[in-house]
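assembly run, all chains below
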Amino acid sequence: MTVFEPISVPDPSAESSAADFSVRVAEERFIEAMGLAHEEDRLPRIAGRLVGLLILSPEPVRFDHLAARLRVSRASISTNTRLLENMGVIQRVTRPGDRRDYFKINEEPGLLLRIVDRYRARQASAEEMKRALLPEPDAGGVVAERLDRFIRFYSILADSLNSVLAAMAGGDGNSRPGTA
Amino acid sequence: MTVFEPISVPDPSAESSAADFSVRVAEERFIEAMGLAHEEDRLPRIAGRLVGLLILSPEPVRFDHLAARLRVSRASISTNTRLLENMGVIQRVTRPGDRRDYFKINEEPGLLLRIVDRYRARQASAEEMKRALLPEPDAGGVVAERLDRFIRFYSILADSLNSVLAAMAGGDGNSRPGTA
DNA sequence: CGGTTTGTTTTGTCAAGACTGAACACGATG
DNA sequence: CATCGTGTTCAGTCTTGACAAAACAAACCG
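ok done. output:
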């Protein structure tokens, strides 16, 4: 899970212009928005903020830098980076001769596959129900129709999601086998 | 929010065959699956079960019947039906001369619009960030590209979701203005 | 007017889990 | 070896939210 990569030290010459400031504010907003968004997906808010911050960071970011920037404990950084790393959303980056850990977002959209799975699961349980209902087409009239819509909807949804993923992976030079 | 509709009294002649039983089991599983699925969407589990049960009910179901069937308190039914009703997922059905409330699922996929909104929101916050980043195209190189992918993905996703919704509404005889 | 049925609101309890500080592990370094 | 730097794990706190029981409200009925 560990990526090996040369790190270019972030430029410490901090000239702060007016534009710089507005960018900083926008970053704050974006990071917070990502926190909220991921919370909706049942992920810790900190994990979301982490993702937001890493999206905005051209270079891998140091572990303790993350803690300082987001103003949370190192423990939280440790927990949430591990979580995101396992999910394939971010990558841990190390450099020989440097004991510290850096993190970068994974350019491959790992998170989205999870969404597809969720939709597929719903489709599946509707299909199972429909099969169980088959013996009696009588009372199943309205219900069977509903289930059909349900199944159709989630199936189309998952399919189109997959095709978007495939398209982006293709345009990006990355291939994701087994999901087309 | 209240629908006005004649109610056909559910047939109390309960002849239970073997097939009937397996259907009952399948229903249980389906309802439970819907409970879990909705929990993932940050809705109370009971709300999800409610939806599951109502999907499987050809006729509107009585308030206290819901409590009995799902074995939860009337308080929970009250809270969760109100929640789902406000979200447009289910409809309260009343009948003149009958003080009791019945519920049915809304055949229009109200819940899904919420998903679209979520995706649009993410797209929007990425767009905002990108705009704020514009003044400095320098450091924005990698980041701007990421944001672009981000925006593109969620935009396509929301669009395709919308078109699925539109298609289903069309094939279903229902029109949803303002979402094409 | 009581009393009954039906649904709502309030209040309290309980569990889940996010987050932290502190202890810990472990390698590097003087 | 003592110490520092770095990340992880553990134990505890605090918040959130689901759920229920009970009090409540309102419509109906005798």
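Residues 63-64, 74-75, 77-79, 82, 99-101 of chain B lie near DNA strand C (CB under 10 Å from a C1').

Residues 24 and 178 of chain B are 40 Å apart (CA to CA).

not gonna interpret more than that til we talk
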